[in-house]
Amino acid sequence: MRLTGISAVLILAPIPFMAGATVEGYVQLPESHSAPVIAKRYQIVTRGGVLSTEPPVAVVYLVGSFAKPTSQSTKQVVQKNLTFVPSLLPVQVGSRVEFPSLDDTYHNIFSYSPAKRFDLGRYRPDERPIPSQIFDTPGLVTLRCDIHEHMRGLILVLDTPYFVMTDTDGRFRSRTSFGPLHA
């Protein structure tokens, strides 16, 4: 199956046909129009906006009724050089995300997003175990740091196990075995 451009494609095929399918395509990514954010206090200039990534990338995913995950996966969003790495993290509903810090400074990661509200409190990397959260509601979660106002990150919580990130040119390719669909 091949997708090109920004279009939606619905394919109804028997499961045996889709088993072991390769999905690939191209998404035309918008050019970044975000103005630089300057944090003079930390001598940092970043081009990442509240809801944009630098360089631009996208998440491509299938929509439908899929089996719920049988095991919980754990992913990480690292704080490094006063930024979130990765700046965009797609996860399936029920995933745990850890927030380790590689910076030698305090951070206070929080979100007021409807899909997940939390506040990890102030911490340094050597003070306590790595803080984590379970993301159990689909939606877009915007990450911020209460101490470093320029820090922004995104977690896209998906109700599907079938997703892939594009590269910086908008290309994606995923080979997967589609399991049984549920109504």
Please explain how this structure is put together.
- It is built from one helix and 17 strands.
- With 183 residues, the chain is mainly beta.
- It has a single domain (30-169), classed as Immunoglobulin-like (Sandwich).
State Rg: 18 Å
Report strand %: 35-45%
Give me the CATH fold name: Immunoglobulin-like
CATH H-level superfamily = Cupredoxins -  blue copper proteins
Shape: globular
- Summarize model confidence as the mean pLDDT: 76
The main β sheet shows up as: 5 strands, mixed
- SS field, number of helical segments: 1
Uncertain regions spanning at least 5 consecutive residues? 1-17, 47-51, 179-183
Terminal Cα span: 23 Å
Structural class: mainly beta
- The helix-strand sequence is EHEEEEEEEEEEEEEEEE
In which range does the helix fraction lie? under 10%
Number of strand elements? 17
Give the strand order, joined by hyphens, for the main sheet.
9-15-14-11-12
Q: What number of domains?
A: 1
Give me the secondary-structure topology.
Layout: E1 2-4, H1 15-18, E2 21-26, E3 37-39, E4 44-46, E5 59-61, E6 74-76, E7 78-80, E8 83-85, E9 88-92, E10 95-98, E11 109-113, E12 116-119, E13 132-135, E14 139-145, E15 152-158, E16 163-165, E17 171-176
Parallel strand pairs: 1-2, 6-10, 9-15
Antiparallel strand pairs: 2-17, 3-4, 5-16, 7-8, 10-13, 11-12, 11-14, 14-15
